[in-house]
Design goal:
The protein starts with a strand and ends in a 7-residue tail after the last helix. It folds into two domains: 164 residues, 3-Layer(aba) Sandwich (Rossmann fold); 74 residues, no CATH class. The longest helix is centred in the middle third of the chain and has 20 residues. Helices cover 38% and strands 24% of the residues. It is α/β, with parallel strands linked by helices. The strands form two sheets. A six-stranded mixed β-sheet has the order 6-7-8-3-9-10, sandwiched between helices. A four-stranded antiparallel β-sheet has the order 2-1-4-5, with helices on one face. It has ten helices and ten strands. Helix 7 links the parallel strand 7 and strand 8.
């Protein structure tokens, strides 16, 4: 069953067609990867799927609910979370506090409780801290719970941003270049984390240039070229598609 369905989706910036007439469906619990050359429209598509951009045409449906022209917070409230190619973290806060921010969407304590420091607020803070600590352990950062965010190495910051996204309790997680700038060991950790995410029931949409990672974790791959669908299918089929080899993977990729 499809969790997300995109129908005839297009986005134009003036005369530039960044995404053109895309239709696809993402099954629940799968890893759906989007690949393509620089400028193919991958990040623009993620921005559309998270409500950052409003489509020029087309529709985005999550579990049959039309989100197309809703504000970004409505996408988040519906169960869509994301990370960014360029880290968007609060480096002047602790690692734990960064994860706790992700839980804010689900907090029910109002202004009066905050001003008066009512017991309900204290209980909510304890619960948020406990969940954030649990998520840090879950992504492999359990030994850094007490650290400041600006003390963490780059690879750990990537996983911290995933932990914060998980604190929103997403059904659909959009990952924008999670392995960018990582060394081989850190990339393997991200590979294992994506596999765990899908195994836990979270649907993952992955934009990534590391083809070894993409081919290893993906259930389905969509290949973009200049905002259009070039190819789509299982990893084993996409990697052998002559159009994909010519446009993106390189002449030697099909034999791997």
């Amino acid at each position: 069953m499809s969790l997300l369905r995109v129908e005839n989706l297009s986005k134009e910036f003036g005369g530039l067609r960044a995404v053109e007439n895309l239709t696809f469906a993402i099954p629940a619990g799968s890893v759906f990867s989007i690949i393509g050359p620089n400028g193919a429209g991958k990040t623009t598509l993620l921005n559309l799927l998270s409500g950052v951009y409003v489509p020029s045409r087309g529709s985005i449906l999550l579990d049959g609910r039309d989100l197309t022209r809703r504000p970004p917070h409505a996408y988040a409230a519906s169960g869509i979370a994301r990370t960014f190619q360029n880290l968007q973290l609060f480096l002047n806060m602790s690692a734990l506090e960064n994860v706790m921010v992700g839980r804010a969407l689900h907090e029910r304590c109002g202004l009066a409780a905050a001003l008066l420091r009512l017991p309900a607020l204290e209980r909510a803070e304890r619960a948020a801290r406990a969940q954030a600590e649990e998520l840090m352990h879950w992504v492999g950062l359990g030994d850094l719970v007490g650290a400041m965010a600006d003390e963490l190495p780059y690879g750990s910051l990537k996983r911290l941003e995933i932990a914060r996204a998980l604190a929103t309790r997403p059904r659909l997680l959009l990952l924008d270049e999670p392995a960018a700038g990582l060394n081989a060991t850190e990339t393997l950790e991200i590979d294992a984390l994506i596999t765990r995410l899908a195994g836990s029931g979270i649907t993952v949409v992955l934009v990534e240039h590391n083809m070894r990672l993409v081919m290893g974790v993906s259930d389905h791959i969509l290949v973009l070229d200049h905002g259009r669908r070039l190819a789509e299918g299982a990893a084993r089929d996409v990697r052998r598609d002559p159009r994909v080899i010519e446009a993106y993977l390189g002449s030697g990729a099909g034999a791997a």
